[in-house]
Model the fold of this input.
Amino acid sequence: MVALLAGCATSRSVLEIMPSSVPENTQTAATANGKAVYIDTVRDSRSFQENPPSPSIPSLDPSEASSDAIKLRAIGRKRNTWGKALGDILLADGTTVESLIASAINRAFSENGYQVLDNSSKVTPGVYVVDADISQFWAWMNPGFWAITLSAEISTNLSIKVDAKNEQLVVQSESSDHFQTGMESNYIQVVTDALNLYVEKLKSKLKSLE
Done:
């Protein structure tokens, strides 16, 4: 059982969760609402701790490199059957928590009928401008007797400006499921589920702007 759950838990794992792989909504595309949005900045503001009291708090293996570039790709920490922190879980090179959240925000606005602009030079009066701070984007494992629980939580603070107005939105999502092992595919599942739920939560909150 220990071998099944731990696997290569002492080493770093890399997960392929590309922004383009976030599933598209299968429903009919939203009717354009005549509004446009520009996603300006998406910033990773997560706080990493060396020995956090909870597995839901970001941390990195102190024996591995922990540059800013690595932190942008870090989304979890593997643990053994007793909950001891082991190897890190990183996004594939070229993908960051910032790029995943930018893609999710883009998708939420698009599916609510907004035209998403790709260049700041296209911003004119009446265009919504979005800045996002990522306060949480983390996946973790809690051990159990018959099964483990894998969870992923995402939380962002969004500033949405249009002309003289500035709307502040907090968007949070969390996904959890039970598994027999901490396989990489299981982590991918809970993180993808959290991203999809994040999109739906943001779409619901955007109705307050209309």
